[in-house]
């Protein structure tokens, strides 16, 4: 079982065995989570640095933020731990170049929830991970899935650079949108995914339902939509039932359900649609994908919409969500694609049924 998982030693064990100084590259929530994990493993961070153009003499987490050029002038060798997300081609090239000069790790820490995706965690969930691997519809999905699992254990960014797709690949070869889509966008943010869908349908569609809980994001969404016909916007969270949830607004992509947030309306897709059809359903809801899936289960069974679901917010998402989709509707074919991103964000599940008209080209 899990013959495709070749990494045996976690990034944390590798860091603990290091004798060279370990420097975090970057600041923010990711750095805080990584530093906490390092403390739990008894790993000492030597400091924090940033790209020269971003250093302004400030501190972070008790460390003075240093320039990369200063470290390179001072040290002959050190270990780099990337602590922020990278998606632009220029920054990915910069990280790749840095990894050619120094030992570079990108520890995987969950966006939401606790725990770490170690080899031991992988072995604990080997049966579920194997079941997902075997259920994937094409060889490319299996390669990407194997790479993501191996990355999560090892922290080696090469696994993320090795197999990437473009949005054109995904829309044109996996989702194959028509001019008559009924698109439900959960986690609509400022309308970026709606804009993306419209680009591939040349502005043609039947109906759009957009759900966004964050107040500031919702204002941007409504402004983007304007008076576009047949678009309904809801300021609420996506959930399994209609209720209220404590919600932390961050005016960005990472607003999420928390224990001490402001009370926010939450709706299920099934209740929002009230029995009406959906042909394309996207879920990027910052760790609430499982609940959102259950809240859309009647629609998924009845209409078999094409699904786009984020798999990277919680440790368990990478195996739990694909299995849940198949449990709700066994007719789906499952595909996994990874857009250019370090760490393993923008790793998504795409589920299509033959009768939807979607076809996937080989490799």
Please describe the structure with a list of short key phrases separated by commas or semicolons.
about 375 residues; alpha/beta; Rossmann fold; 2 domains; 7-stranded mixed β-sheet; 6-stranded mixed β-sheet; 17 strands; about 35% helix; globular; disordered C terminus
Would you kindly provide a written description of the structure presented here, covering whatever features stand out?
- Mean pLDDT is 93; it is low at 251-255 and 356-363.
- This protein is an alpha/beta fold and 363 residues long.
- It is globular and about 65 Å long.
- A seven-stranded mixed sheet has the order 9-8-7-14-15-17-16, sandwiched between helices. A six-stranded mixed sheet has the order 3-4-2-1-5-6.
- The chain is built from 15 helices and 17 strands.
- Helix 6 packs across helix 15 (317-328) and helix 13 (289-295) runs parallel beside helix 15.
- The longest helix has 16 residues, at 139-154.
